[in-house]
Target: Elicitor-activated gene 3-1, CINNAMALDEHYDE AND HEXENAL REDUCTASE
Amino acid sequence: MTTLPEKEHPNKAFGWAARDPSGVLSPFKFSRRATGEKDVAFKVLYCGICHSDLHMVKNEWGFSVYPLVPGHEIVGEVTEVGNKVQKFKVGDRVGVGCVVGSCRSCDSCKDDLENYCPQSILTYGAKYHDGTITYGGYSDTMVADEQFILRIPENLPLDAAAPLLCAGITVYSPLRYYGLDKPGLHIGVVGLGGLGHVAVKFAKAMGVKVTVISTSPTKKKEALENLGADSFLVSRDHHQLQGATGSLDGIIDTVSAEHPLLPLLGLLKSNGKLVLVGAPEKPLELPIFPLLQGRKVVGGSMTGGMKETQEMVDFAAAHNVKPDIEVIAMEYVNTAMERLLKADVKYRFVIDIGNTLNATS
Model:
């Protein structure tokens, strides 16, 4: 176990927090727990901004706890390990995603699906085992149990790795679970944003044919030329949709706004699967007859367990799957949140914590 100088001890932390539902973030001093025997402490170098951070700082889901330090796409370098840690050492490149704790005894935990554990502990804004509130990665240090630490391969840039820990696993997991990862299959990806563009990249790396489905015709060139999609459909063009009827084995729907499902169901072959990974605020209308007539399935998926998330990171490194990012300084975070609200980013913001957080302190 490494003993750190007092000024760097991981229970002293500095970050940016929201204090109320206005969502405005500002500098915040707080404490991390001392590194326990199975804990890994690391210096945060980069943290991605997820759309859920925007919801949480504004308490739009109704369970935010203030002060709130967001961030669950966290990567950095190990500075200290507990004396019972077996998988990591000082200097390792590591990350933390959406979850930092679970019961470890339920069926989901036994199946390496800690994300579906009824007692899973979110990386920020949740109550930890010791009763303290968790703080996220918009901060200089992080401490987590080694069970919830991910190893970042050397050939995967840390800034690009950050969004994989939420956006990446959110689309990788349903591709694998629903069997939409087989070479030669043809899938659709609805929405070309932070989730959608990563879904295209993973699916192509798996050898799958990909059609991007978007409300915006202006995204066609981006989808085909920059992201490598095979075809493009404008979801509001009924003629285009009719021409593609029954052409897809599955669809990954990343859209979080209210939108009709009927046109998407029509694109599926018999036995096709429509998988929702976005989270619209209002319930969507689900017509039943298209399901009956083609034995079609509508399902959902939410991030992934630790084993699968590590598998996803390793796959990304092996196949050069990297999200398109815009790296920003910590002090730019409030502007970034405003831009994110307008979908004004290609395609994920990543905060350069290591080089810019101290400058704002």
User: Anything to note?
Assistant: The mean pLDDT is 94.
